[in-house]
């Protein structure tokens, strides 16, 4: 234990030195972004070496988008960049919802949502839902049945317009839904489309969604555009083969309806934007800053260095981490920077390969082994030593201050650090110590590959500690630090996560106002059969979990959902396809010459209000 403690100290000290010195991390990823400032306005302009000038703000990010066609992206970097161009039509600030593109959020109370009974018999064509199961074959019916059908109607705000001057209409939202449904579009999930009877245009500014009979959804007001963030321009893409959009020029320069339009996208380097003159807020003088540059830099340490040198003005959660807290606190003590630490709904976790997608046998098919790993990892020590004690361990797929967390916390096992319990469970699962201390079963040593993203000092330090903890109980862990966009999060069978070609993987999920129960549904396991359209990267499937999770989604009132959500979390906590580690603290920094930047705990976009930011004169 003394030797491991010394190694722990070395890991922590190294991270602190890197953060303080801005020396960067050794990676195999090509360097992205310039070490010089990119204070440019027009595409092709030479990047200078001066800090940003009046009218320009440079946002630094340590990850770059995989594509700017948001429908086909699972990258947080894409979400952040597109927020300035195609903002979410409904935001999720402070554990609630706010309409952006719509005049109001439709509800049953204001008449925007209604429910009617419809008859389903063997002459009915289309899917329907009985006891939360999606059914496509009416031959199972013994006679006609009456099922509720939900209809939701949205009305667009006045003045919402594409950057080319074409009005955004209901047709663009219905077209986005068509793209989501198209098998040629590489989307993460088609859940909403699969539970849609139809979309219907009322007029140019109004459209409706009809759920399939029997489907009741607690977030019915989010079912516009097939579950997309917003519309897609039918007048531009309507005649284009959906399968080709992701590889076309459009995926680098999507049409804007938000405060900014894209002038230039240099992959792995920068996105240069200017104010969209057709933005609906232009009459109110928005956006207040005329030009924005998203600059992609290799590592968090280089981000910090460029923030200090004046080459970057603003950084959000994809660029800074708690590992840099000592240096950031020093900056906060000065007069130039505003540093923000905000508890986030982003949670770091370790996925286990319950069932691999490549057919390779996995020791983590056994729940006892997954539980053993949980007991073997000292999460509190990780938090104290790597994260400066500024966050808390998580035991479910949502923070313990979430409205859906069990009111009786004792029903959730905290898996407190207990190596002896871990060894006991491993022995019960048939693993015994070999001559070299590594566990063996059926002649095979317990050796696994553990993947996480390169260029992230905090994750790499956590992974190194996990490696040490598991070695102490006889598990040999090989660390794999890989590129996020092009390797770990890559779509399709070649992706480490989507293809389920891993044993353990460390990355983050985002919770929010709605519980993350869909993450672990059987239907969300990415496979070739569903075009890898799912995010249950563990391969976990438990019908008992599906039953209560799906039922919880069909109840509209929160009070009625709580018992079911508690059951779902208890099943998850017992089966443990994923080990939650800790609630991430969002870290942000901005020069004090910029006002308006403020992180929100439940927003997936750090720059959700970028159109209101101002530069001091």
UniProtKB/TrEMBL annotation:
GO BP terms, alphabetized: peptide transport
Protein name: Extracellular solute-binding protein family 5
GO MF term set: peptide transmembrane transporter activity
Extent of Low complexity compositional bias: 24-35
One Pfam family, short name: SBP_bac_5
PANTHER family for the chain: OLIGOPEPTIDE-BINDING PROTEIN APPA, PERIPLASMIC BINDING COMPONENT OF ABC TRANSPORTER
UniProt record similarity statement: Belongs to the bacterial solute-binding protein 5 family.
UniProt domain Solute-binding protein family: residue ranges: 152-521
Record's GO cellular component terms: ATP-binding cassette (ABC) transporter complex; periplasmic space
Superkingdom: Bacteria
Region spans: Disordered: 24-54
Signal peptide: 1-19
Entry keywords, A to Z: Signal, Transport
Annotated organism of origin: Herpetosiphon aurantiacus (strain ATCC 23779 / DSM 785 / 114-95)
PROSITE patterns assigned to the protein according to its UniProt record, in alphabetical order: PROKAR_LIPOPROTEIN
């Amino acid at each position: 234990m003394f030797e491991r403690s010394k190694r722990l100290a070395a890991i922590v000290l190294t991270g602190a030195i890197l953060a303080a010195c801005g020396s960067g991390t050794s990676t195999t990823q090509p360097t992205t972004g310039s070490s010089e400032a990119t204070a440019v306005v027009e595409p092709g302009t030479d990047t200078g070496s001066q800090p940003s000038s009046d009218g320009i703000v440079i946002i630094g990010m340590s990850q770059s988008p995989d594509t700017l066609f948001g429908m086909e992206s699972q990258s947080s970097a894409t979400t952040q960049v597109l927020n300035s161009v195609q903002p979410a039509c409904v935001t999720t600030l402070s554990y609630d919802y706010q309409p952006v593109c719509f005049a109001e959020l439709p509800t049953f109370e204001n008449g925007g949502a209604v429910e009617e009974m419809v008859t389903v018999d063997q002459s009915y064509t289309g899917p329907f839902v009985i006891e939360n199961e999606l059914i496509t074959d009416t031959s199972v019916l013994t006679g006609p049945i009456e099922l509720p059908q939900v209809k939701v109607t949205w009305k667009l705000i006045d003045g919402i317009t594409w950057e080319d001057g074409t009005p955004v209409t209901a047709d663009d939202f219905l077209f986005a839904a068509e793209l989501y449904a198209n098998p040629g579009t590489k989307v993460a999930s088609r859940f909403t489309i699969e539970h849609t009877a139809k979309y219907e245009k009322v007029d140019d500014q109004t459209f409706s969604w009809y759920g399939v009979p029997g489907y009741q959804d607690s977030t019915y007001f989010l079912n516009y555009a097939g579950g997309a963030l917003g519309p897609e321009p039918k007048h531009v893409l309507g005649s284009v083969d959906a399968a080709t959009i992701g590889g076309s020029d459009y995926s680098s320069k999507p049409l804007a309806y938000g405060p900014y339009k894209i002038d230039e996208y240099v992959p792995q380097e920068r996105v240069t934007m200017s104010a969209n003159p057709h933005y609906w807020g232009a009459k109110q003088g928005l956006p207040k800053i005329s030009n924005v540059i998203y600059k992609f830099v290799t590592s968090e340490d280089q981000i910090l260095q460029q923030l200090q040198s004046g080459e970057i003005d603003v950084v959000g959660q994809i660029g800074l981490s708690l590992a840099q807290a000592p240096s950031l606190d020093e900056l906060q003590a000065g007069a130039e920077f505003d540093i923000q630490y905000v508890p986030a709904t982003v949670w770091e976790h370790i996925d286990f390969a319950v069932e691999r997608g490549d057919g390779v046998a996995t020791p983590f098919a056994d729940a006892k082994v997954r539980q053993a790993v949980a007991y073997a990892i000292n999460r509190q020590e990780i938090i104290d030593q790597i994260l400066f004690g500024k966050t808390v361990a998580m035991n479910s797929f949502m923070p313990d201050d979430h409205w859906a967390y069990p009111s009786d916390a004792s029903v959730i096992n905290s898996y407190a650090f207990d190596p002896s319990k871990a060894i006991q469970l491993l022995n019960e699962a048939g693993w015994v110590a070999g001559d070299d201390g590594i566990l063996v079963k059926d002649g095979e040593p317990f050796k696994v590959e553990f993947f996480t993203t390169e260029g992230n000092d905090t994750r790499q330090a956590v992974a190194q500690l996990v490696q040490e903890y598991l070695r102490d109980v006889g598990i040999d862990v090989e660390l794999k630090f890989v590129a996020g966009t092009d390797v770990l999060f890559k779509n399709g069978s070649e992706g480490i996560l989507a293809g389920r070609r891993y044993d353990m993987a460390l990355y983050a999920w985002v919770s929010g106002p709605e519980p993350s129960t869909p993450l672990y549904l059987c239907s969300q396991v990415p496979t070739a059969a569903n075009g890898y359209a799912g995010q249950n990267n563990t391969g976990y499937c438990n019908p008992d979990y599906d039953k209560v999770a799906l039922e919880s989604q069909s109840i509209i009132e929160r009070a009625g959902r709580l018992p079911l959500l508690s059951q779902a979390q208890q099943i998850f906590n017992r089966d443990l396809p994923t080990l939650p580690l800790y609630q991430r603290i969002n870290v942000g920094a901005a020069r004090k010459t910029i006002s308006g930047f403020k992180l929100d705990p439940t927003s997936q976009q750090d720059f959700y209000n970028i159109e209101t930011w101002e530069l001091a004169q």
